Structure formats: C-alpha cells, structure tokens
Amino acid sequence: MMAHMTPTPVLEPGQDRTMILNMGPQHPSTHGVLRVLLEIDGETVVRLMPDIGYLHTGIEKTCEAKFYQQVVPLTDRIDYLCPMTNNLCYVLAVEKLLSLEIPPKAQWLRVLLNELTRINSHLVWLGTHALDIGAMTVFLYCFREREEILKMFEMVSGQRMMTSYFRVGGIALEPPLGFFDRVRDFAGYFPEKVDEYENLLTGNPIWMMRTKGVGRMTAEDALGLGATGPTLRGSGVDFDLRRDMPYSSYEKFQFKVPVSEEGDVFARYMCRVQELRESIGIVRQALDGMPEGPIKADAPHVVLPDREKMKTQMESLIYHFKIITEGFAVPAGEVYQAVESPRGEMGYYIVSDGTAKPYRVHMRAACFANLQTLPTMCEGRLLADVVAAIGSIDIVLGEIDR
Amino acid sequence: MPLSLAITDVDQLKNHPAVARLLGGKAGMVQGAKFDRAELTISVDRDSLREACALLKDDSACPFNFLSDITCVDWYPAEPRFEMVYHLLSMQKKERVRLKVRLQSDSPAVESLTSIWPGANFFEREVFDLFGIRFTGHPHLRRILMPEDWEGHPLRKDYPVEGYR
C-alpha cells in the first residue's frame, strides 16, 4: 500500500469494548475535508482526534516568492467564505509596515464590505449547520440572501467569490453607480429575513433538543484552547477585536457584541444570528455616513495610478511600469495585524527584509485554533452530537490548512 | 505619516508592564526589547521561555491571558538560524506583546507551552511540521499539515518553492 494511504494519526482502541470510527474527509457534515477519528463505546464518544492537512497548498511559502501586491489574490483563497476580511487583514498589515495613511472613504468602504462579507459567511454557516442537523429549508432561504450579496460583490469587483478588491493603499476601483442603492435596499429588507430564519429555528423544539446543552465548553477551556470569535463569545467571554482593538475606523461605529453564557451549540448559534443583525446595522451606518474623497492613499510609489492619467502623464506611466515589473520596496520590520473575521481572530504576521517581496507571511487562522476545542466539546457525548458541534465552530478547511 | 525610528533600548522601555514584569524575573531572561510600529517585541532567553510566559500570564496588573499565535522565521544562513515568535494578548488591557527566541540550526528545540495554554498544541505541531523545530514536553508532536512520510520541512528557506523533484 502507498504510504500516504495509511490512516495517519493512528488511534488504538483503548479498551476491549471501544471501536475506532473514521469520519471524513469526504463526509457531508465535515464542511470540506476535515477528517475526524473517533473512539466510540456504543454511541458515546470516548476520544476524538481531528486530522487536517488535506487542503494544504503551501500559501505561506508561495507568498515569499510574490511581490507584496501579488499576495492579495492569494489571501482570498485562504478563507473562501470571507475573502474581503482576509484582503483587509493583509493590506492593513502591509500598510502598517509602510506607515501609509488611508483616506476615510476607503476605510469606510472596507468596513461596509467587511460587514457584508460577515453576513455572507454567517449565511453559509447557518444554512449548512441547519442542514447538518436536519433542517432543510433554512439552507434554501440563506442562499437566497447570499446570492444577493454575491451579486453586490460582483458589481464592485467583477467576481462573486474571489474578490481581491482591496489594494495596499486603498481599494481597487470606485464602486459602480447603483451599488449603494442596492446595498441600502438589501439593508432595508434583510432584518425581516433574519426573523424568518429565527422563526424556523430559534423556538423550534427539535432544534433546541439538538443544540441546547450539546457541545458545552467553559470560558476557561475556550481561552486556554485559543478559541476566538463567536466560539469564544458563546462561552461568555466578551471580546471582539472590532470594538476592543479597532482597525479601519471601526471605532466610529456603534454596535453591540452579542455574548451568550451557556457555552453550548445553541449559545454559539444565538451569537452568530445576533451578529447578523448587528452587521446590517453597521452596513446602514456606513451607508449613511460615507465620507467623500479619494479611495486611494497619496503614495505614488505604492498605489497604481489611474488608467486615464497613465495615458496623459509620463510620471504615471513610469510608476505603473515600475510597480508592475519590480513591485515596491517595504521598509524592513515586522508587524502582526489582527482583524475580527466571521470566525474569530484572523491575524497576519509579516516580516519584511526591505525588498519588494515579503520575507515571511504567516496567517493566524481563527478556525485552526477553534478546531482544537472539538475534543473538549464532544468527548463523553453522543456520536450524533459531533455533527452539531462541528457545525457550531463554523470551520473552513481552506483557512485551517492554508 | 513618516515612519518613526524603533526604540531598542531596554531602559527606555522598562515602564511597559510586560518588560517590567520580565525584568523582575530571573536575571538574563530578557535579552533585548524593541518598540516598532506601535508593537512591542521582547527577546527572551531560550531556556526561560516557559517561565517568561507563566510570569506574563499571571501578572495581576496586565495579565497576558491569551496565546494568539506561534510561528517561526527562518533566517538561513545566519546563526542562530530560527526565530520562534509568540504573540500574546491581554484581553483585559487590550495589549499585545511579541516574544522571540532564537534557536541554533543544529537540532533546534524549545520548551512547549502546552502546559500553560493547551491551545499551543496545534501551533507547535505546525511549526514542527513546516520548520522541523522540536518542542520538549509536547504531548503529541507529529506532522499536522504535511503527510506523515513527507521529507523535509517546506517553510525552511533552503527548501525550494517548487519542492524537491
């Protein structure tokens, strides 16, 4: 047998009565290619071991061979459900290295798009999580609204999923005519849709039986295991990077951070559903208070010039040629920039050696740490609850494996 | 916004809670400190890393209760070659601190932090997998992203981007 076909983390049965069950990597409820090895005693999980790496593509290594601006499209592919969040985190880190000042309009647009991304990601989570537990309809409803968000992304960036819309120093293009009206429309009717999802789930006795008291985790465990985002807030820890360590003008927005104390699957569900409502509130504030002005920083050695100027001005043409062919040099140093992604703390650690290519790019993936909480949630519980617990930490394997 | 110069003098930084806390610990624990782009970095002696983390976690004034991230940078061919990087976060004071440890290239090893933060588990396995650094006291040190039988450590600088052919 080929060596790579042997089951890698070998889990020996601990007692005579237990058996090993392999779940995944091709299993509909493991959201991609997560493999979970379970030692079970009848229906009870004795031990659980996640096995990851099936989607490892070596993005961190690839980044070292790219110019700084060429890394942006790679960041989309890490967490394909929230591309804009990854774009934002990366460009913020590079801007910190360069000490660039970003115009207010670009910052607000970034916030607007990030909150739409959060809604988009939470809708996929809600749909698939409900589907895992057996509620079929919610999935169809969630994807109906998600479709509208994807159309808005297509409007601004030309792409539905891999947007690559943010640039070091600002954003790529002005949003097209009609974009803001479309977002305002969406922000107007979306809260009703959240009521619709909640009508189907929150008070539903089957949903409550499947989620309440299931996959419990204390605040202490969650902190120790490195959990962040709704996974942490569902255990009663009130911490959100948008509010507590604001970036990209988040300090100018008013929003609540939903926290639940119970630490079970239902608590994490409630946190995310309320976040949907808070996010649409932030979107509305961003629309109302959108500042006027440029969308790119005044840094010709970093930001690509307008196409129009390139046709009339020699300097613009030269800068364009230089940035495209040899990139831009970034002063030596290192930064760690973290943002609140839909799943938790998404962090980029970038080391620059003063050249046009990053010396090292490391992504701190929220799911990577959150996945470690799975054994705590599931051991000693029923096998069927494993599916609910996996759904409740909202994993994206692209981000875990990178 | 011009780039201001980094402060690298430990004396100037000793009022920062994290630096003060570590200077109060074992002599020789702090090997250097740097304040650059509003981020604090403290270089710590290899043998006292675990102790330094325990001190920072139990600090009553500014507890760094959360381990955000562990990673490594390979400075091949310089020696000490590997630089372990730890990002700690104080949720109460909303402060971050970066701890660094330099490791020689012959059998690089450092103490595991899993006894302080169980969440260090996956991060250390990742560094072991991609850089080949051993963590003493780690409960389950084996490859995590690459296949078990993979040769080499892909994120080392002497490992080609296209892989070995």
SSE blueprint:
The complex is a heterodimer of chains A (about 400) and B (about 160).
Chain A: E1 19-23, E2 35-41, E3 44-51, H1 59-63, H2 72-76, H3 83-98, H4 104-133, H5 136-157, E4 166-167, E5 170-171, H6 179-201, H7 205-211, H8 219-224, H9 230-233, H10 241-244, H11 265-288, H12 307-312, H13 314-326, E6 333-341, E7 344-352, E8 360-364, H14 366-370, H15 374-378, H16 383-392, H17 397-401
Helix pairs in contact in A: 3-4, 4-5, 4-11, 4-16, 5-6, 6-11
Chain B: H1 10-13, H2 17-23, E1 30-36, E2 39-44, H3 49-57, E3 66-74, E4 82-90, E5 95-103, E6 109-111, H4 120-131, E7 134-136
Characteristic terms for this protein:
heterodimer; A: 402 residues; mainly alpha; Cytochrome-c3 Hydrogenase, chain B; 2 domains; three-stranded antiparallel sheet; disordered N terminus; B: 165 residues; alpha/beta; Beta Polymerase, domain 2; five-stranded mixed sheet; two-stranded parallel sheet
Q: Kindly report the name of the CATH homologous superfamily of the domain at 10-121 in chain B.
A: NADH:ubiquinone oxidoreductase Nqo5 subunit
SS-based class of chain A: mainly alpha
CATH superfamily of the largest domain in chain A: Cytochrome-c3 Hydrogenase, chain B
Strand count, sense and closure of the main sheet of chain A?
3 strands, antiparallel
Terminus-to-terminus distance of chain B: 47 Å
Largest sheet of chain B: 5 strands, mixed
* Assembly annotation: heterodimer
CATH architecture of the domain at 10-121 in chain B, please? 2-Layer Sandwich
Query: Total number of helical segments of chain B?
Result: 4
The low-pLDDT segments of chain A are 1-8
Instruction: Give the strand line-up of the largest sheet of chain B.
Output: 1-2-5-4-3
Q: What name does CATH use for the topology of the domain at 10-121 in chain B?
A: Beta Polymerase, domain 2
* Count of distinct strands of chain B: 7
